[in-house]
């Protein structure tokens, strides 16, 4: 029994005793006269007043206990991202494992396949509308909705995920990430709880050999990112987009000759070693790092309260560290698996790599010329590289 309840029980007994005393004291005396009961009656009135107060305390305690006995609200998440294999998918599963084991069942996260809940290019809109609680959205699909998104997911000038983390989240007080989060939250009814920044070492996979940038000419590619599609078309190739879940089938049926979609680990997860022959460039990845943001419906976020909010942020940090550490080894191991499966590894020359980067930089100018936020990214990256002596 709680101390509060014990106190109420004892005070209740005191009231019963006081009533009993009044009854005894006011009985007729031996001489047939009635005893003076005024003092005892006054005491009784005081006890009754106290009793009324106790009644209120009892009701308040009963309400408090009822609230405590109510089952906690359960938030069921079905977060998806742009890929159903590889590092971003691993991140979602590690995060779910963390949340499911630390929130006492208050948050249950079950990652869903791309497109199962909503189209991958509308993840943030779906969360903002409240049709789902949370998603891991990639900036690449929002390039046409606000200019900063076009550049945020690129790693032009940032060779590794460590460089991207430092340049975006730490350098100059994390101004790049803070600004990007503000852009998203200003446009949609969501909160950016955090982001996954990871090693990607992006490559292409193709049925035909592309030993240099000029070999893109006449080749049809599936690309989900402008910073891949624009350079490819500038070298004479053509591009089309469709969801990642359709890549294998479209390669097998000849709709496209190749595609871009993350690292060798990501490509291996799609099983495309069965329908492609050439992967590369291994020595000069066409993108070093990438990122996605974990967005939560703003109304739900506010309803959750500080404790669950903190747990979601912790889950993002934990999953990000684990998935990124594992990514370096997984990517290297995937190359060995691909070679064993008969894939030919392609390397580019330094000259071809420089031409690729130059094409990406030219593409970026269309955004930096019209958006101060987009320009902030490239200016910060340049300042970061200078600071690091790169």
Characterization of this structure:
- This protein is α/β, with parallel strands linked by helices.
- It has a domain at 75-198 and 289-333: D-Maltodextrin-Binding Protein, domain 2 (3-Layer(aba) Sandwich), CATH 3.40.190.170.
- 53% of the residues lie in helices and 13% in strands.
- The strands form 3 sheets. It has a 6-stranded mixed sheet, sandwiched between helices.
- Residues 4-9 have low confidence and may be disordered.
Q: How would you concisely characterize the structure shown here?
A:
The chain is α/β, with parallel strands linked by helices and 390 residues long.
Could you tell me the number of beta strands?
A: 11
Overall radius of gyration: 33 Å
The residue fraction in helices comes out at 40-55%
Mean pLDDT: 88
Largest sheet: 6 strands, mixed
Order of SSEs: HHEHEHEHHHEEEHEHEHEEHHEHH
- Give the strand order of the largest sheet, numbering strands 1, 2, ... along the chain: 7-6-8-5-9-11
User: What portion of residues belong to β-strands?
Assistant: 5-15%
Supply the number of helical segments. Answer: 14
Assembly level: single chain
CATH topology of the domain at 75-198 and 289-333: D-Maltodextrin-Binding Protein, domain 2
